[in-house]
Amino acid sequence: MRNLNVTREQIQTLMRLQNIESESARIEKKLKGVTSQASVQGARLRELDVELQGAREALDGEQKRYAAIEEEVAELNTRVAKSQEYLRVVTNNKDYQVLRREVDDNTKRVGELEEVLITMLDELEGQKKQIAELAAVHGEEAEKVKSIEQEIYNDTAEERKTLESMSVEREEVIKALPPALFAHYEKLLKTTGRLAVVAVSKGVCFGCFMNIPPQQAIEVQQQGGLHHCPRCHRILVSEPNA
């Protein structure tokens, strides 16, 4: 790109673009840090989410097991009732003994299962109590996190508004630049890092802090236009605060 194709005003506009992007990056970094703080505050809530979900799943599994045992007890009681009816009318001693044994076995099994159900009832009540306590803690933590997030949101309102304004301003500045100059600037950003445009003061490049040729320093100061540091290849401007 020839020097004559780029005016001093365009270089100043490019410097303005860089200042906007640098300030935007600073604000974004700050907002990211604040967001990270909110994420840390929410870590306990996420732990409680997992714990509460696990407790509810465990309760659901036990309730299904309880219902299955209840169903088995009902079936056994039905068998016992039918066997007892047959006992009243059976005449064969062998058949009587078989039915009697079946009634006794099923009755015994019913008793065992009912003991299991009694124990499970206590356990289920304990699980429900634990879930209620966890849910209460979860609710308190959720309110705390919500309050912190709202506070962070309020505290960063100005930064977010500034960032939005800068985004609009950046687009306007880019439109004012020749596309080739903007493309050159973006390419330099990728190769040199955060700064593509730097000042020259007392013959020193403020990008690499090395001396540039005296004649080039004079040209940057007097003529403006597009000049590059011979060492770091950044674009040079004459005023440090431009």
TrEMBL record:
Keywords: Coiled coil
Domain C4-type zinc ribbon: from-to ranges: 204-236
Domain spans labelled CT398-like coiled coil hairpin: 17-192
Pfam families in UniProt: CT398_CC, Zn_ribbon_9
Coiled coil: 17-116
Name of the protein this chain belongs to: C4-type zinc ribbon domain
Organism for this UniProt entry: Desulfoluna butyratoxydans
